[in-house]
Amino acid sequence: MSKPRRPSGPPAQLTDRLFATERRPEDFRFDASVARVFPDMIRRSVPGYTTIIPMIEVITEQYAQAASNCYDLGCSLGASTLAMRHGIPYGDCTLTGVDNSSAMIERCEHYIALDDNPLPVSLRCEDILETELNNASVTTLNFTLQFVPPEKRTELLTRIAGATRPGGALILSEKIRFESVEEQEVQTRLHHEFKRANGYSDLEISQKRSAIEQVLIPETLAAHKQRLLSAGFDQVLVWYQCFNFVSMLAIRAD
Ligand SMILES: C[S@@+](CC[C@H](N)C(=O)[O-])C[C@H]1O[C@@H](n2cnc3c(N)ncnc32)[C@H](O)[C@@H]1O
Ligand SMILES: O=C(O)C(=O)C[C@]1(C(=O)O)C=C[C@@H](O)C=C1
């Protein structure tokens, strides 16, 4: 019998208007005002997000191993956590969601409780740089590494690779930048058109752009691939790309 597929994340009940009126320039933070509107914000801001979430379920099902640990690092409201929960085919796996925003974790608890899948989920409000990882089969960083300071990324990925069992995998989704100035210009314009098509105004697009400039640091695909391999993964592939947003799969050999 075919199993029911989940919708793509928590319901987007509240519309994101955080940048709709002129605000004083301030770095973007995952605070309570962002957590309230986050399902709407991320769907309207990240091309492919609504495809990536259900595919995390499909990929998790392929790479999860019996009696192993699965992690969702930077889980926000639990969209990726729930996708993993539904993909894990073994009752003896653990699933841990981690986020250092208390506003996100509080709301995430609510969404996890509403979901009727029996696999227990542990939620931790902590820095993913501090999270203890071991015996992992599937780990997800769905648009989270981009917020980790670049100089701390190698250490985190090396810890993840070291904690991953042979045959296990990391799902890494990121906003990327491009080596070529021309491509950067075209992909950025297309991303902004995507936002415009989703109802964001020029003011919202430009204020959000300034707010994330110092906190969301994109890197090139080549830099990601090279670092994942040197961190200890054996194979790295891109399974999804839309404009300047990609999702990679980093696999440890059997
Ligand atoms: C774009 S959101 C992730 C979206 C989520 N994975 C999903 O699929 O809906 C990034 C999240 O990472 C969290 N985050 C960023 N840096 C972190 C860190 N060092 N430790 C823990 N969480 C972090 C933020 O609080 C935010 O909730
Ligand atoms: O790049 C942008 O314009 C975004 O809004 C992207 C992005 C992300 O990739 O995480 C930034 C912050 C929010 O988490 C939602 C979306």
Automatic annotation (TrEMBL):
Catalytically driven reaction(s): prephenate + S-adenosyl-L-methionine = carboxy-S-adenosyl-L-methionine + 3-phenylpyruvate + H2O
Origin superkingdom: Bacteria
Molecular functions per Gene Ontology: carboxyl- or carbamoyltransferase activity; S-adenosyl-L-methionine binding
Coiled-coil ranges (or none): none
Keyword S-adenosyl-L-methionine in annotation: yes
Subunit description: Homodimer.
Keyword Transferase included in the entry's annotation: yes
Matching CDD domains: AdoMet_MTases
Family to which this protein belongs: Belongs to the class I-like SAM-binding methyltransferase superfamily. Cx-SAM synthase family.
Domain Methyltransferase as annotated: residue spans: 72-168
One Pfam family hit: Methyltransf_25
Gene behind this protein: cmoA
UniProt-listed Enzyme Commission number(s): 2.1.3.-
Organism per entry: Marinobacter salinus
InterPro entries, alphabetized: CmoA (IPR005271), Methyltransf_25 (IPR041698), SAM-dependent_MTases_sf (IPR029063)
UniProt-recorded name of the protein: Carboxy-S-adenosyl-L-methionine synthase
Catalytic EC class: transferase
GO terms for biological process, alphabetical: tRNA wobble uridine modification
Role description: Catalyzes the conversion of S-adenosyl-L-methionine (SAM) to carboxy-S-adenosyl-L-methionine (Cx-SAM).
Keywords annotated in UniProt: S-adenosyl-L-methionine, Transferase
Annotated S-adenosyl-L-methionine binding sites: 49, 74-76, 99-100, 127-128, 142, 209
